[in-house]
Amino acid sequence: MGRTVRVKSFELAAKDINDVDVTLLHALSTGVGWPHRPKDWDFLRRAGHGIVAVDGIGRVFGSAMWFPHGHDFATIGLVITSPRTQAQGTGRWLMEQVFERCGDRNLTLNSTDAAYHLYLSLGFTREATVFQWQGEVVSPPPPVPALDGELSSLSAKNIEAIAALDERAFGTGRQRLLALLSEGASICLLRRGGETVGYSMKREFGRGHVIGPIVASNDCDAIHLTAVHLKDLAGRFARVDTREQTGLFADFLQQSRLGMIDTVTTMSKGRRFLNRKEDEPWVYGLAGHALS
Ligand SMILES: CC(C)(COP(=O)(O)OP(=O)(O)OC[C@H]1O[C@@H](n2cnc3c(N)ncnc32)[C@H](O)[C@@H]1OP(=O)(O)O)[C@@H](O)C(=O)NCCC(=O)NCCS
Question: Quick check: CB of 115 below 6 Å from ligand 1?
Fold first, then answer.
């Protein structure tokens, strides 16, 4: 008789993500090599909604989250199934559960290679590539172009100062998320001619800090809004997720000696998500893969 037995079929049910212990979510993301700390899951649960796939004794085998903004839009993320149960239909089922809960909202997500065909088959279309730069920040930082305007720091209690600018860049108002992101973040503002023209946040996430969102109207502004945080992070781990593949901002990241370690694909279902216009504010750095 063999020393092991293959057990395949057991039933999973959807449960609200707030009803499970964070250690189970942490184990799930660690199991697929993601850097989220329990604190990051706690943050995401405050920022959005989610479900987990649990078995009869409460073990978590999958998750999916959505982050609604306004009345007709949401981002999707944290779609994970534990390696033991992959390729058995759980990922597709989780997404169908999310669709049911999001109704007719326009949706966007950043897909890993592993999930790309699943999302295509669920009606998502490809929009852009996101480049994940990360590593230990070297000192001194690369040279920056001349600054046009004034940089200052913004306190979280004045977060409404960036709401309108962010909405023009992101395409939908996300004030509640910005307020949550700003808690414990270091926020840099760029003003020119008395107007707010850019901002960036640095906050703890995963292995160190993420610099994002970074919102600016041109590469030079985005460089300054990133460099200011990199300076603070010398010798520590930082991450920037961007859709810039070429240009001064992409060159700056290259010169910063962070490594480009992975890419994901921005996809949407319903209305197109990305809509870049010349000289208009643009999201140079993502808040996170799940948050866009
Ligand atoms: C991506 C992921 C969520 C898919 O979950 P899953 O439970 O394996 O998904 P399903 O079993 O529903 O499979 C979905 C489709 O992908 C295909 N698929 C799944 N695993 C596959 C594999 N290893 N190779 C090729 N195709 C695969 C299935 O055939 C299925 O297609 P079908 O429904 O037409 O048959 C899971 O692989 C995962 O957690 N990966 C790591 C984390 C990740 O990348 N998450 C995505 C974030 S955007």
Answer: yes
Q: Are 206 and 41 in contact (CB under 8 A)?
A: no
Instruction: State the pairing for strand pair 208-216/237-242.
Output: parallel
Residue range(s) of every CATH 3.40.630.90 domain in the chain: 132-285
The class (CATH top level) of 13-104 is: alpha beta
pLDDT, tens digit, 9 for 90 and up, residues 210-241: 999 999 999 999 999 999 999 999 999 999 99
Looking at CATH, the fold of the domain delimited by 132-285 is given as Aminopeptidase (3.40.630)
| pLDDT tens-place string over residues 147-205 | 999 999 999 999 999 999 999 999 999 999 999 999 999 999 999 999 999 999 999 99
**Residue of 51, 81, 96 with the most ligand 1 atoms within 8 Å of its CB, for mutation:** 81
* Backbone φ and ψ of 16, nearest 5°: -60, 135
